[in-house]
Amino acid sequence: MKKVLSIGAALAALVTAGAASAATVTVGPGGFNDGYATAVTYNNDAGAAQRGTADGRSNGLNALGANDGKFFEIGYNDEVVFTFGTSFVSPGATTEVTFNNRPSYVEQALVYVGMLGNPASWVLVNEAPISNANATSTFTFAGGPFDALKFVHTGPNTGGKTGGFDIDSVRVTPAPVPLPAAGIMLVGALGGLSFLRRKQRAA
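The chain above was modelled as a monomer; its predicted structure follows.
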């Protein structure tokens, strides 16, 4: 179940000083949910006219958790940042719910990976934007681990129609947890015991 919860640490890292900060909001339960996004930060003013309210598309919570048919619409030329309660590596994927509606609306977004609190860390995943040509878009990237994904709506403005990219869910691959040094020593010791037992049996 999706709940609204204040995430002080994430908000402090993402909200910048200035007039725009007053409109920036973070929603979501936070924590870890099998690699699905659990919090999203966005400017509540940017692209609001394009987002609208039908189907709850202005509710950022709709982009969190597993696919459920509900969606959050990124406003025209808007950007949103997702976090997952974990660091992650490639690949990632997003589900867009209004796919193949391209004769009326061409919806596209660029995807970046990076580290919260470090604007210089953002890296464009690929040159071509993901779009509503497909229900699911998978993106791969080098390096990491990272802890945030940023989606930037790129349009185009087709005949004055500027509908945003509609996100049902975003998912990443959690980064492997390094085995602590004590754990490595234990594995080595167990391997040594196994070797000695085989040697004793052979003798």
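The chain has a mean pLDDT of 78.
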